Amino acid sequence: MRVPNSVVLPVGTHVDCCQEEEVKEKSHDIMAKITAMLAERKSNLTHFINNLEGSEEPKFYVDQWERLKEMESCTLSILNLVAVNCTDHRDIKKLEATILEHVKNEELFPEVVRVLPPVYRQVEAAIVDIAQSEEMADHGMMDLDHLLSKLSQRKHLAHLGRELLQDILRYLHRIGLVVWYEEINHLESTVFLQPTFLITMFKLLVRYRLVQQLESIS
């Protein structure tokens, strides 16, 4: 909701636990709830903005007003829900095909036709090579300056600058090859070359029915 022109594909799982008619009913219900949620959000934003504009001292709330107007301008495209049975490989392939079909839609993703400079591909290939090397730690974390130094040691990337590398990392972060939290002060100098490590770590920290699991321990 805070990302400009974002596109969301809702995915409903556990289809194997439902009857065919129930899947249709639940899919329709989910889409209706999403539509209602977006309408409520838009109404709330308008209400908050009007309140600030109608306050006795609106100049004191300029920062809040600007943030709300920025959120109001963030359009959100919701695609039709895809219902899948995660235990059926055919359904996974169907989901993959649906995602690819949407991603290639130039109306949804105008930048899909943009041609990347060769250096983007070169850095991407080099990062994959570094991430898969034996000297890379299992956690896949690397200091940004150290990564720049490692990349610059490669002949075709000898002139790679920090600013260009940051632009490339933003692109690689968007496509999911790496994770780089540049907006978080404590993490802006760390690049996660193996995002799957984060998933493993979060699975250890965030557990389903955690409270019940803890209560069951004597």
Keywords:
MFHA1 protein, 218 residues, 8 helices, two-stranded parallel ribbon, P-loop_NTPase, globular, Arc Repressor Mutant, subunit A, mainly alpha
Tell me what the structure shows.
This is MFHA1 protein. It comes from Furnarius figulus. InterPro entries: P-loop_NTPase. The longest helix has 34 residues, at 20-53. This protein has helices at residues 20-53, 62-72, 89-103, 118-132, 144-152, 162-174, 195-205, 210-215, and strands at residues 6-8, 11-12, 76-78, 82-83, 141-143, 190-192. The protein has 2 domains: 7-104, no CATH class; 118-202, Orthogonal Bundle (Arc Repressor Mutant, subunit A), CATH 1.10.10. It is mainly α. Helix 1 runs antiparallel to helix 2 (62-72). It is 52% helix and 7% strand. The model has no long low-confidence stretch (mean pLDDT 88). It is globular, with a radius of gyration of 23 Å. The strands form 3 sheets. It has a two-stranded parallel sheet. The protein has a two-stranded parallel ribbon with strand order 2-4. It has a two-stranded antiparallel ribbon with strand order 5-6. It starts with 5 loop residues before the first strand and ends with a helix. It is built from 8 helices and 6 strands, in the order ββααββααβααβαα.
